[in-house]
Amino acid sequence: MDDETDVIVLGSGGAALAAALVPAQAGLDVTVFERTEYLGGTTAVSAGMLWIPNNHHMSEPGDEIVADSREDALTYLNRIAGGQAAPELIEAFVDRGPEMIRWLEQTTPVTMYPIDRPDYHSEFDGAKVGSRALDNQPVDARTLGAAADLVRPSAWYPEPYTYAERRKGLATQELIEERLDNNIWCFGRALVGGLVKAGLDNGVDYRLNRRAVRLIRENGRVVGVVVRDADGRESEHRANVAIVVGTGGFEWNDELKINYLRGPDLAPMSPPFNEGDGLLMG
Fold this sequence. Notes:
The protein is an alpha/beta fold.
């Protein structure tokens, strides 16, 4: 092995960054391998909103806040899943999602608030007209120092204002200019920026231009990963505790799309590197 650490995380979208932060906060050594020259994956170019039913903000007072319950959330999600998802996974999402939001807000610069966007199938039992979707409050990218330049820029959501500010007519030219001048991020970059900052504060080692190509197994257990750099050189890395595969989707892999997507594909909106690396390794 070329080196070893406690936990290896493959990919650097929102889920991967959060997965890296948990063991780092527990005092473990964590290395994140990212295939491209930027951190953030699809999350960084997206709106970065999280759909978490029964989140703690839904119990706060406010004219626009919608109340929720575990029962309503399960009713809606089971109807949406149509028998294609394991009930225990649906329950885990409903029960642990709100805990995750509290953890984010308590241990990272990420702060979220509920928005007035209704559930996609508002006609289903258990649906809500708002507050399950959470947007990010602005994040000051200057707190990341030089690492701010390592977060993927977004062509889809470059605006430095929140969903609520846009809806309420508060996204003035003065506000936009001020935030652009001060490198204030919103939407997906705010979520990624907050997670990256927390990772830096907890000693996470981010390695860019490192594509995971093979998992290493010993005695039936995955113990490491083979990583290829931008020059094509391969190296082996051992994880003493765990490897987390968080490499994103496969919408840029034509063969996987033909076999596993139900409908016609027009054009992916994600960065052109989601080729199913994690699926293929698995």
